[in-house]
Specification:
Blueprint (H helix, E strand, L loop, with lengths): L9 H54 L20 E8 L3 E8 L4 H10 L3 E10 L2 E9 L5
InterPro entries: HofO_C
Organism: Shigella flexneri
Keywords: Membrane, Transmembrane, Transmembrane helix
Length: about 140
């Protein structure tokens, strides 16, 4: 049996392996670079698409008419609930005076109901009459026009 024939000396084999390694590194680098360019191009297309979508949304918002919140109409009878009894209502051109016999717990909710009806309170008073609490409010309505 003859030993295998070695055509290249040891140093040339080493040099060839070294060159093959760097050639493989170069091919890998080129491949990764091309993949990076494809990802970058996809990202640029995605950004352009998002920009177009945002522009369409802004155009849609600009064309949508603005509508104010709907307020409930004011009626003094709305304040006659459990724990509150309407005593008097004196309307005026600016609003009116509302008097209620109420419990302490019902006082904050009266302000909430007035705000829902776009009615403001210029002044109010709380006084005790016997076992009841008299809650008097001076109301103002906004002037239309």
């Amino acid at each position: 049996m003859n030993p295998p024939i070695n055509f290249l000396p040891w140093r040339q084999q080493r040099r060839t392996a070294f060159l093959r390694f760097w050639l493989l590194m170069l091919v890998t680098l080129i491949f990764l670079s091309s993949t990076h360019h494809e990802e970058r191009d996809a990202l640029i297309r995605l950004r352009a698409s998002h920009h177009q979508q945002w522009a369409a949304l802004y155009r849609l918002v600009d064309t949508t008419p603005f509508s104010e919140e709907k307020t409930l109409p004011f009626s003094p009878l709305d304040f006659q609930l459990s724990g509150a009894q309407l005593v008097s209502w004196h309307p005026s051109a600016q609003g009116g005076e509302l008097a209620l016999k109420t419990l302490w717990e019902a006082v904050p909710s009266a302000f909430t109901r007035l705000a829902e009806r776009n009615v403001s309170v210029s002044r109010f008073s709380l006084s005790v009459e016997g076992d009841d609490l008299l809650f008097t409010l001076q109301l103002e309505t906004p002037h239309e026009g």
